[in-house]
Amino acid sequence: MLGFFTAIISFTIGSLNILGNRDFLESALLILILSGSLVLAFVGFGLLFQTKIQHPWRTVSISLTSALVIIGSLIAYYFIK
Fold this sequence. Notes:
By secondary structure, the chain is mainly alpha-helical. It contains three helices and no strands. The longest helix is centred in the middle third of the chain and has 25 residues, at 24-48.
């Protein structure tokens, strides 16, 4: 539970720092990269410190989804710049 609140705090602080003096689309893509990275880190720490056995396909699907969000945002950011 502590990791969830830490992720919320880092997402809020990171979002405020990203919104500095960029346009909306660039900031939105950077926030998507940040949120995908946080989800991927949260899943990774969940794998390291498992307390019970979970369904492996759920973990794989969440990891792939967050990796696709990160890659898609990076590609879109590259084409916008």
